[in-house]
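ok so I'm stuck.
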Amino acid sequence: MALTELPPEVQASVAETRERVAALHAELTRYELVVWTAGNVSERVPDSDLFVIKPSGVSYDALSAEMMVVCTLDGKKIDDGTPAHLQPSSDTAAHAYVYQHMSDVGGVVHTHSTYATAWAARGEPVPCALTMMADEFGGVIPVGPFALIGDDSIGRGIVETLQESRSPAVLMRNHGPFTIGKDARAAVKAAVMCEEVARTVHISRQLGAPDRIPQADIDRLYDRYQNVYGQRTTQ
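replied:
not stuck anymore, here's the structure
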């Protein structure tokens, strides 16, 4: 498949998605969620069976929209105008699996942020002890299974774990957090919030056992944040 052979509206949508994905990688470094070339952001191209993802092993300060790799939903790079040697992220198969099996997901992010990854190293969910967690995650941040990089094993673990949770974040055991959202920006926000609450609850545990929020209150907080909080567009 060649990008130049796709309908003009799809080509335009790919170009816009590349711009967004490239810009959002700067948020990962801004919030210190990644080091060196680790981590990645991807986004589904609207109204197509394509997604855009960071190229593998490229420094964040060298990224540009033109370098973002375009893949089909089975994780195969298309002829997208980038050099043949520029391959998609090593986590592409995981992202592709999520897009194939969670149709409402429009963005996926992976980081190795310090505190969230520390919980993943312990194989321990982050308990819901903060109203911020109830708001954003609707409960605990769950732990997914250990899986090796290279095929869709990580993606399977993400989907299996998050299908049973309201959380947009999962801590893949001994690996790190993956987050999802309606688009890439929402998934990046979830990654930022995941690290923040993982850090705060960790610090709380140094002082004693965190006081967990009762489930009924979590449900009320989650509903308010998801359906009432913020500005609403009037028709």
